[in-house]
Design brief:
Blueprint lengths: L1 E3 L5 E3 L3 E2 L5 H14 L3 E3 L7 H11 L7 E6 L6 H15 L4 E6 L7 H16 L3 E7 L3 H10 L6 E5 L7 H10 L2 E5 L22 H10 L3 H11 L3 E2 L6 H8 L8 H8 L16 H4 L7
Parallel strand pairs: 3-4, 4-5, 5-6, 6-7, 7-8, 8-9, 9-10
Antiparallel strand pairs: 1-2
Helix pairs in contact: 1-2, 1-9, 2-3, 3-4, 7-8
């Protein structure tokens, strides 16, 4: 299943996420995903595993053009020249000569001038054919408005926290208004390590509405949630290093949720974010240096 981005590029709707995947486990996870049928891998400079993603893709035996590679520029590399160099670092680690989708990892509103400079660098990389599409991550509607007012190319993708307990309808509406594809990180509500956020959260995997829908279709709660994203036109990038779970998360194309089931899932929204607030400055985290190699 592919989605067409606003510049005409097609992207597999379902991808493997490697956030929090230890480098030593990432290569095998990517190999398992590609063997299961995935053709879209999402990584980031800040994850510290771009090199291992590249190894997994090479080990798969697939042609480079068969795999859609998405990665992200970290805040410490924002600014026009710095972001051009961030592309150099990312492609060297991935061992590729182009990236399919390059996005800014955070809006970083405390230094938004650098964010705009970084995005202008993405526009240059796009014009030069070094990336096939560009976008953003964790941008709220007001961040998008600020960015659009200062740049020329509308982002192709906005990757945000989105799962049945946190559906961000305002972000989805703003994305749709501008022709931006909404992509869900933590698409099955599986955030496991964000100190200070969501300690009291309940497991979406045990939600009776979701488990009940799953029982109706003979599918797991995770499969139900992934199907929910896909039927509503979103991209989803569930993360796992478990080969069985990786395969299970991809086995979502043989059933369909009814309109009432989709509405029931939408109704689970609590409005409570599990990850960090994109409007909050995190100076220590933002200062993390992305190594050259």
């Amino acid at each position: 299943m592919k989605l067409t981005l606003n510049n005409g590029i097609t992207m597999p709707a379902l991808g493997l996420g490697v956030f929090q995947s230890a480098p030593e486990r990432t290569t095998a996870a990517v190999e398992a995903a590609l063997a299961a049928g995935y053709r879209h891998i999402d990584t980031a400079a800040a994850y510290g595993n771009e090199r291992e993603v590249g190894e997994g893709i090479r080990n798969s035996g697939l042609d480079r053009s068969d795999v859609f590679i998405e990665t992200k520029v970290w805040v410490s590399d924002y600014g026009y020249d710095q972001t051009l160099h961030a592309w150099d670092k990312a492609t060297a680690k991935l061992d590729v000569d182009y990236v399919d989708l390059l996005i800014l990892h955070q809006p970083a509103p405390d230094r938004f001038d650098k964010t705009v400079g970084a995005y202008r660098a993405l526009e240059t990389l796009l014009a030069d054919g070094k990336v096939r599409a560009i976008g953003v991550s964790n941008f709220m509607p007001h961040h998008l408005e600020q960015l659009l007012a200062s740049t020329d190319v509308v982002p192709a993708v906005n990757q945000v926290e989105l799962h049945p307990y946190f559906t961000q309808p305002d972000v989805q509406a703003a994305d749709a208004e501008h022709g931006i594809l909404t992509q869900a990180w933590s698409p099955i509500g599986g955030i496991t390590f964000y100190p200070g956020w969501g300690e009291d959260r309940r497991s979406v995997m045990e939600d009776p509405t979701i488990t009940g829908i799953g029982q109706t279709h003979g599918k797991s709660p995770a499969q139900v949630m992934i199907r929910w994203h896909l039927q509503q036109g979103r991209s989803a990038i569930p993360k796992s290093t478990n080969p069985a779970r990786i395969a299970e998360n991809f086995d979502v194309f043989d059933f369909e949720l009814g309109a009432d089931e989709l509405a029931a899932l939408d109704a689970l929204d609590t409005g409570v974010r599990n990850g960090p607030d994109p409007d909050e400055a995190r100076e220590e985290r933002f200062a993390m240096v992305i190594p050259e190699a």
